[in-house]
Write a structure and sequence with these properties.
- By secondary structure, the protein is an all-alpha fold.
- It has a domain at 65-223.
- Helix content is 72%, strand content 0%.
- The chain has helices at residues 6-35, 44-57, 73-103, 119-152, 157-173, 179-199, 205-223.
- Helix 3 (73-103) runs antiparallel to helix 6, helix 3 packs across helix 7 (205-223) and helix 6 (179-199) runs antiparallel to helix 7.
- The longest helix is centred in the middle third of the chain and has 34 residues, at 119-152.
């Protein structure tokens, strides 16, 4: 088969790059707006919209970036719950105490104080946990952002490593209101969830369950006044 003209090849190659650049500029704009308190109530729906439009323009579905069961329901739930509990135990008993010792700051969580002893806010928080946080953030940061960056870099090990680090950094910075300890903690959690996504062949269901379990434990600890550093 004859090679296409260089001009055509260049133009074809430039279109995905231009689209990706536009997407990343929009994402950066949403972060800046959020840091300046212009985003209500959360930037996740806006990022999700960018991800959805990007997939549509590239003729992809959410299933193409991993939104499917891992083998079956039983396996998905078993691995997801086990991973979520493991992430929470690592956070509570190792990474958070270490980060607090290094930075001298506990995660800044005043917005969650209302959950303590309040059944109504616990129910609201758990509903948000499994929709906005677990589902929404995993679809955005792992399903969309990681796969998008890896795809641009060729899907090799190097590309996936860069994608893992970049998406995890974005995930950490999205929790800027929790201070340096909260940002670092969520960056590390992002690394674990992203590695889980990558190691399971780009499966999103397991990280969604793991993320939901981790946040559920957090809110239960907050409700029972047992979360470290929160009265």
């Amino acid at each position: 088969m004859d090679a296409p003209p260089k001009a055509m090849t260049s133009a074809s190659a430039s279109r995905p790059a231009i689209l990706a650049l536009f997407e990343f500029m929009l994402i950066a704009g949403i972060y800046v707006a959020d840091w300046n308190h212009y985003i209500i109530p959360s930037k996740v729906p806006y990022l999700f919209a960018i991800a959805w439009v990007s997939l549509r323009l590239r003729h992809l579905r959410w299933a193409d970036v991993g939104f499917r069961l891992y083998r079956n329901w039983r396996t998905t739930l078993l691995i997801g719950v086990a991973a979520g509990v493991a992430i929470e135990m690592l956070e509570l008993f190792f990474t958070q105490p270490l980060l607090v010792r290094i930075t001298g700051q506990i995660p800044d969580l005043p917005a969650f104080n209302r959950v303590s002893g309040n059944v109504t806010w616990l129910v609201i928080s758990l509903a948000l946990t499994w929709t906005l946080f677990a589902f929404g953030e995993e679809m955005v940061f792992r399903g969309y952002l990681m796969s998008r960056i890896a795809g641009l870099l060729g899907q090799g090990r190097r590309g996936w490593t860069v994608a893992l680090l970049t998406a995890s950094l974005g995930f950490g910075l999205s929790h800027f209101q929790q201070g340096i300890t909260g940002v670092t903690e969520n960056f590390l959690d992002g690394l674990i969830l992203g590695t889980l996504y990558w190691s399971l062949g780009g499966n999103l269901s397991v990280p969604i369950v793991a993320h939901g379990v981790t946040d559920t434990i957090d809110f239960l600890l907050l409700f029972f006044h047992r979360y470290p550093g929160v009265s």
